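Appendix B. Worked example

We walk through a single record from start to finish. Start with the input: the chain for Xanthine/uracil permease, Aureobasidium melanogenum, length 713.
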Amino acid sequence: MASMTASRVHTATTPVHSTVWQNKLINECRSRGLRAPNFQECSDRRGGRTAWSSVVEVNGCKHQARYWYDGDWVNNAREDAAEVALQRMGVVPVPRGPHARLLGSINVADLDRTRGNTIIDIMTNNFKDDSPDTIGPETTPKRSFSEKGRRLIKAFTTKEGLVGDYDYGFLFKPQLPFMKRARRAGPFFGLNDRMPVFLALLLGLQHALAMLAGIITPPIILSGSANLIQADQQYLVSACLIMSGILSMIQISRFHIWKSPYYVGTGLISVVGTSFATIPVATGAFSQMYATGFCPSDADGNHLPCPDGYGALIATSCVCALLEILMSFTPPKTLKKIFPPIVTGPTVMLIGISLISSGFQDWAGGSGSCSSRPESGIYRLCPTIDAPHALPWGSAEFVGLGFLVFVSIILTERFGSPIMKSCAVIIGLLVGCIVAAACGYFDRSGIDAAPVANFIWVRTFKLKIYGPLVLPLLTVYIVLAMEAMGDITASCDVSRLQVDGATFNSRIQGGVLADGLNGLIAGLCTLTPMSVFAQNNGVIALTRCANRKAGYAACFWLLIMGIFSKFAAALVAIPSAVLGGMTTFLFASVATSGLRIISTVPFNRRNRFILAAAFAPGFGATLVPTWFSYVFTYHGSNQALEGFFNAIVLVMEQGFAVAAFVALILNLILPEEMEDEEIPELTANTIDAPADEEEWRHIRREDESEKISPVKS
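Next comes the structure step. The output line below is what the pipeline stores for this chain.
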């Protein structure tokens, strides 16, 4: 980038040392009742040149100023930060420092308008972030249509716009024992920084691959639980990929609701995928549907395809999505008070644990009817006796295939390059598919019969509200809202944006609202609830790219994958053992996320009691899911009453729902207590108490003597 010279506002004021301007800014903020800035939060950023970044906190919001300087780091950067902050607050401008090189999305015209070459976000009570594109105060003019056109043409017609000077080798360099690690981290791309087109497409592909396994797993498992035909399974995988791209655009774009303080979307790289929380509820509901006759079975008791059951699932989820939409208008602080980590942590952890059993069944050959190892019928071999290379459930060949996938994921994480690490699950799946294809486990008939292109509503399902699913799905949407809040907070953190204040709260509100709307839209598009994915935060941290252009590129790749249905057909044809090795790792990651949430809670006596009380029925219902199946013995003609009983049974058989309910109630009724100090006066040991008390008093006297003793120079 060529060096630029911005127009400067000169006054009679003479330049002074940077600390003077820092003190002046601090005093100015305090006089206005704002929080004093912190100039110590700075870091060097190197990428061929040296940059300096300062984070200024005013009124709880982080003001980011980024500079690129020729040569070494210079001391006038802090002076510039203070100067510009004072200018934006209406204080008399001062002479600017010497040259500076800009990293970001501002050109020379923008520099002239903003009286400097500094990007700084001033977010006070008078400034509303109406659009993620807003990078300054509301006085900053928006670019004209012709200017946007010139920038777009330059991006696709120049080397700088297409590839830039980014170190692409950083993404592909493996971490082998004999190779040296890079001493300098790559440049960080902020929310709206300029970035080359090719780099945006490359990092977008990385995001798409990182979430691919999580997107395709729920439709494959749910369609298998409902025993849908192969064409329906392929359609659901394609539709999930397409809708993930479309709904992710809603979250990334962030729309302002007209004449209201509310938003739709986060304005971050908050990608959307099919929720795992629906899987245990849906699989339990399908089992109940087959048991009650809602779904058909043949004379031998084998389950037949049940598209009506799947239609009942998505219709009921549409109605229940209204709960999360209403929750989005509740202040985030209130939601966090009702659903703190002591409630959400065990819930997320038990969701992952309950899913691991399904992944392990697939690892051994399949989670369908063949898992019971019948002695006769088409399911005596997995997946069926007509499949190529069919084997009994639990065969060594199946276990070996899943183990190969699992080990490949571990090796990729250890030795892979940054772009490989974020796609470790997909690489493990690819290795397993290659070996399975070479050994003859793939059935190509579905791939050959699949159409070239696909889209939503190509196949539809009969919609019907299924009463027993209402209560469990309401619990699911509460969990999704809490997960969304945690994921959005993590996205702001890795994107180097504020994690408190009005703008952050608006991102939480917009993200939860978009999450609820996405669940409603997904149901209308024949899909189960879709929610914000967390694994892409790791991609942001690994690649140091929080730019929304990479997010839009990920949406583009997801749309391409979904529209070309041959890709979805190939995913559906993956052997269950290969898929199980991958999904087991994914589900364990969900459980680990819940464990991480729990780790943020102080382990005092009250919280330990709540966790124990929640885990007792939660783990019990997860390990013995039929424990509540025989409590109600009603067999009358009142279908409404029978449906209500079935709903209670379905909730009680979900370990995460039981744990969430117990933890929520106990957290509200148990008072906060201070931990007692372990001093002799509070012990019950009357024999050793006198000696302990004397020792305690001796320690107290030593501490007091140290406090009053003079400090030696």
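Two observations about the output. Residues 1-18, 39-80, 88-141, 676-681 have pLDDT under 50 and may be disordered. The two ends are 53 Å apart (CA to CA).
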